[in-house]
Every structure is written in C-alpha cells, then in structure tokens.
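Hey, quick one: can you model this chain's 3D structure?
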Amino acid sequence: MTCYDRQDLGLLLLRLGTGGVLAAHGAQKLFGWFGGGGIEGTGAAMEAMGYAPGKQSAVMAGLAEAGGGALLALGLATPAAGAAAAGAMAGAAAVHAPNGFFAAGGGYEYAASLALTAAGLAVTGPGRLSLDHALGHAVNRGWMVPAALAVTGAATAVVVGLRNRRVREASEFGQETLFDEADAVFGK
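Sure thing. Here's the predicted structure for all 188 residues.
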C-alpha cells in the first residue's frame, strides 16, 4: 500500500482549486454558465478587447481554461494542461495590465496568480494522487514540460502581440471606446 505524503496532498489541493476555478471560467466563455457570456457574448467582448476574430478567440480561451482546468484537476496531461491554462491567463493579464497590479483596481493580479500556479503545476507535476500517476505518466513525460511551455509561450506571445498592436492602432485612430462593449457584456 502506498503512503501519500504532504506533498501529494498539497499538489492535489492546488490542482483541484486552480483547475476548478479555471474550468469554471472556461465554462462561462463556452457555455454561458455561471453568469458568463457564452461564445456570442464572450466573442463580442474579446473583439472589443482587441482579440480578433472574437468568436474564435472566445473558443480558444474557453477551451484552454475549461480543458486545461479540468485536466489539471484530474492530474492528467499535466504539462500540456498547465501550459494551456497559463497561456490563457497570460492573455487575460495583458488586458488588465494597464490597470496596474492589484485586482481591486482592475489589475492583472488574479490572472497572473492563476497563470503562475498553472505553470508551476506543469513544471512540478501532479503528484501521486493523479491520473498521470495512475497511468504511468504516459502523457506526463519530462520532455513534455519544456515542449508544452515553449509552444504555448510562443503562441501566447503572438496572440497577445497582435492584440496589443490592434489596441495601439485603435487608440491612434481615436477609438477610445474600445472596452465599452466588453464592459456591457460583462456587466461592468
């Protein structure tokens, strides 16, 4: 019989908490659950925030959050799950960055915390209380960690870079109402 230690229990708690929060955020985007906008509403908001095309951006962010979160909670394909979730949260942090760090002022604190926790789980691994461990780590090999983080990092850099360019161009042309539609969709 295997004796689980504090590290295994701690990783389980981190995975369940972080994965559950991410999965719920993704369900808001994909299905409109928990007061979310669904694909239509989130797509319009994503477009207003500079992520284009909006619907495709909503689907990709929703899948990264819901899928990555669910897989993190289960401890399955942990490198890919953590990297995908971290990439989605980096995209969210880019939107909030102009508001400073603290979430109380609309800053990126919350998104950064989720991104760092997801990335940390991708690097550390899920622990023994996980499907990865039960399946012999078939989808949690050492080489998968840098590969998943590198691919996700590159894709995120491109997506956020294109979004930042759109926002910059919109402000140069005097379109100061860029976030009004997003605020209306999310009730802000």
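One thing worth noting: The two ends are 53 Å apart (CA to CA).
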